[in-house]
Amino acid sequence: xxxxxxxxxxxxxxxxxxxxxxxxxxxxxxxxxxxxxxxxxxxxxxxxxxxxxxxxxxxxxxxxxxxxxxxxxx
Length: 74
Known about the structure:
By secondary structure, the protein is an all-alpha fold. It has helices at residues 3-14, 18-53, 61-73. The protein is elongated and about 55 Å long. This is HigA protein (Antitoxin to HigB).
């Protein structure tokens, strides 16, 4: 998205009353929470499926962190 888009968006939000801005911010916060819950549920389902299939990565917290950090470097 362009800077102009965000600038227009900010100006639109600033034109709202304080109460409407608060309502908008609360609505966005709740939607983000719900989206994160959906992502966590999907991740949990994928993990359970991997466990059932025997393809889940297993190890200590240190081993898993090392594995994850290794993936980031690639």
